[in-house]
Design goal:
Elements (H helix, E strand, L loop, with lengths): L2 H14 L4 H5 L1 H4 L5 E3 L1 H12 L9 E6 L7 H14 L6 E6 L3 H9 L9 H5 L10 E5 L2 E5 L5 H4 L2 E2 L8 H14 L4 E2 L3
Protein name: Nucleotidyltransferase family protein
InterPro entries: NTP_transf_6
Length: about 190
C-alpha cells in the first residue's frame, strides 16, 4: 500500500470512529495552540479496524498534545484538560491533555532522567515510544494534517517497533505486553 492509500485509510479510520470522529468534528472548540490528536487512540483505532474489533476497544484515553511555550504552568494545562473533558462529557474515554512545551519540567521526576525542552509538538511526537504511535493528526482545509516522523508503514502493517530516542526498554516492554494481549495480530519488534 502506498503512502497516499495509507493516509486515506488512516483518515477514514479516525473520522469514522465514534470516539475520534466527534473530536475532529469539534476541533475548533478545542482551541489550543499547535494541538494534535496523537498516539494510542490514533494507532489503536487503526488496530481495531484491522482486527475487526469495535472502534473503541482497548482505548484507555485520548491524548491531545499542544505546544504553548508562553504558559508553562501546570495550572494552565489542568485548566485546558478540564475544559476539554467537559466539552466531550459524553465520551466513553477521558482526555489526557499535555503541553509538550512543559514536559521537560516533570519528566525526570516521573521517569528518572531529564530531557531537553521540546521545540514543537512535532518534535515531541518524534520521541513517542514506538514508531507506530508516533503519529499526530488534526483537521485541515485539505483533509488531515498528519505528523508521522517515521511514516505510516509500521502503523498500517501492525508493527510495533521501539523508538529508542527517549524511552527505556522497561517502558517499551510494559506497553507492548498490554498491547499484545489486546491486539494479537500485532508484530512486536524486540528492544
Amino acid at each position: 500500500m502506498n503512502a497516499t492509500a495509507q493516509i486515506r485509510q488512516l483518515e477514514s479510520a479516525v473520522t469514522d470512529s465514534p470516539l475520534l470522529g466527534p473530536v475532529l468534528a469539534a476541533w475548533g472548540e478545542i482551541a489550543l495552540p499547535d494541538v494534535r490528536l496523537v498516539a494510542g487512540a490514533v494507532a489503536q483505532t487503526v488496530w481495531n479496524q484491522a482486527h475487526d474489533f469495535p472502534p473503541v476497544f482497548g482505548i484507555s484515553d485520548i491524548d491531545l498534545v499542544y505546544f504553548d511555550a508562553a504558559d508553562l504552568s501546570e495550572e494552565a494545562e489542568v485548566r485546558h484538560s478540564r475544559r476539554i473533558n467537559a466539552l466531550f462529557d459524553g465520551a466513553s474515554t477521558r482526555f489526557d491533555v499535555k503541553n509538550e512545551a512543559r514536559v521537560h519540567l516533570w519528566y525526570e521526576a516521573k521517569f528518572g532522567y531529564a530531557i531537553p525542552p521540546y521545540r514543537s509538538a512535532e518534535a515531541a511526537i518524534a520521541t513517542f515510544p514506538t514508531t507506530a504511535t508516533a503519529v499526530g493528526i488534526r483537521p485541515s482545509k485539505g483533509g488531515m494534517d498528519i505528523c508521522a516522523p517515521f511514516g505510516f508503514d509500521d502503523l498500517m502493517r501492525l508493527i510495533v517497533r521501539p523508538n529508542k530516542t527517549q524511552i527505556t526498554a522497561a517502558i517499551y516492554r510494559a506497553k507492548v505486553t498490554r498491547w499484545q494481549a489486546l491486539w494479537p495480530k500485532l508484530t512486536v519488534v524486540g528492544w
